[in-house]
């Protein structure tokens, strides 16, 4: 697939450039919205979950620099959420182009992924600036792992996009189901609470199903980002990281296989 994409690298560059340009067209702040969005959500979640609900503490144990904790998990989730939601319509919104000329249709989900990466990567600077502002130590040695984690999340995100973009061609309900699932999925990830709240819970129900919680690849990935930017020492065990890598690869090839198989019928349906 990637070798085939290289044949269309000029087209891919053009589509990514167009996607980024259109997204911020007629916007006063333009590209800076990619930074303002996570900052705004950080403020909202901090007010709601820390000041009002007091979720940042349990049993007298407080999470230091809670806005930084929120931001370090919110940025990767925002990338995943925006990419998957936009990816749902990656094929259906380009129906006229698909009918006119042939090129690998994988290029549309990949375009959405890369355009969101353009917004995602600079947002990491916000975490470093927030760490400096709050006087939180920056773990420069752990930052070396960032490209590997970013690659892992990008592969998982693309796998989800392949699946939902193709299924949405045949069943337009997929777009609405995806939006609903993404809202629920967020609360099943350690964004507003550390993963230790789940693993060390006093609730017998939560304790019983804690391992099922880690079957969620995004829960593990966001915990890994917390380890890098926040220095969370109560991260996931190595076995769950290995599981996440393996399940990401498996899901990628399954979703790509479904994409290729159904791709033959897209011209008839779209």
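Sequence proposed for the structure above (270 residues):
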């Amino acid at each position: 697939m990637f070798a085939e994409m290289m044949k269309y690298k000029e087209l891919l560059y053009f589509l990514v450039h167009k996607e980024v340009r259109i997204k911020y067209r007629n916007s006063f702040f333009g590209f800076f919205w990619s930074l303002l969005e996570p900052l705004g959500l950080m403020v909202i979640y901090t007010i709601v979950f820390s000041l009002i609900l007091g979720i940042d503490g349990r049993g007298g144990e407080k999470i230091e620099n809670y806005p930084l904790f929120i931001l370090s998990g919110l940025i990767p989730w925002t990338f995943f959420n925006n990419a998957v939601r936009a990816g749902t319509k990656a094929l259906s919104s380009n129906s006229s182009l698909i009918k006119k000329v042939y090129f690998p249709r994988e290029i549309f989900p990949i375009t959405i992924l890369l355009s969101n990466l353009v917004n995602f990567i600079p947002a990491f600077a916000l975490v470093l600036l927030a760490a400096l502002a709050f006087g939180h130590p920056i773990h420069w040695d752990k930052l070396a792992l960032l490209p590997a984690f970013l690659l892992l999340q990008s592969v998982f995100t693309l796998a989800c996009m392949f699946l939902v973009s193709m299924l949405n061609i045949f069943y337009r309900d997929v777009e609405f189901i995806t939006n609903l699932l993404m809202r629920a999925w967020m609360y099943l990830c350690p964004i507003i609470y550390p993963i230790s709240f789940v693993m060390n819970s006093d609730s017998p129900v939560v304790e019983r199903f804690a391992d099922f919680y880690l079957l969620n690849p995004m829960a593990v990935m966001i915990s890994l980002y917390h380890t890098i930017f926040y220095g969370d020492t109560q991260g996931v065990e190595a076995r769950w990281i290995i599981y996440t890598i393996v399940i990401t690869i498996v899901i990628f090839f399954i979703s790509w296989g479904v994409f290729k198989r159904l791709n033959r019928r897209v011209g008839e349906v779209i």
